[in-house]
Amino acid sequence: MSYNYRNSRQPKPSPGSQSPVSATMLELARGSVTQAQRHDAECIVIVLEGAWRLQLQGRIVTLGRNEMLRIPAHAEHWAEALADTTALKVFTESGKQSQNAVQHDDPDQYLWGV
Question: pTM of this prediction?
């Protein structure tokens, strides 16, 4: 099954603004799946409702309500919605890591409760 965004909302930036982050609200149908992908910017995924399974650097992580995962820039990952899911994706400025980012080899270290 392909990735099925039921709804995706991204606020429009103010004219002339150059924010170092962007955020998108996603509403995903149960069973939606992505292909393996990489991004130039790091990403924080926050599950607001539902359940989302992600494969990150060879490890499977399942996020439930009020949990988040940091996906480092250029890290290969894929995702599957295990239930109808509402999530927030926050990206840093393309190609740059946040100054406070801590690098880990263990994907479990990217998982945090909100």
Answer: 0.68
